[in-house]
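User: I'll paste a sequence; please echo it back and then give the predicted structure.

Assistant: Echoing your sequence first, then the prediction.
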Amino acid sequence: MSAETEFAWLLSDPAAETYETQRTLFVEILESLGPPANPNLQMATRIDAKMAHSNLLTTAYLGIDKTRAEWAKQHAVMLRSTCQNMLLDS
């Protein structure tokens, strides 16, 4: 949701607030599970996921290959929906 939030800010998408709230909920869920066994690994995993999703969104919205951009957009929407479906209030 971090990448979705940042891209929504970049595109002046009104959904940015919603994504930011959802991202906060994921952080709260993660923190409620207790301290991670390996905090560095946890942070690295979160950063890797954010960068991968950011690359997908970059391809989707700024890519010049229309076929690849459409695939990236559909895939990004599917991944975002999967995350949102994990939240009870979404």
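The helical segments are 2-10, 16-32, 39-62, 66-85. The chain is about 80% helix and 0% strand.
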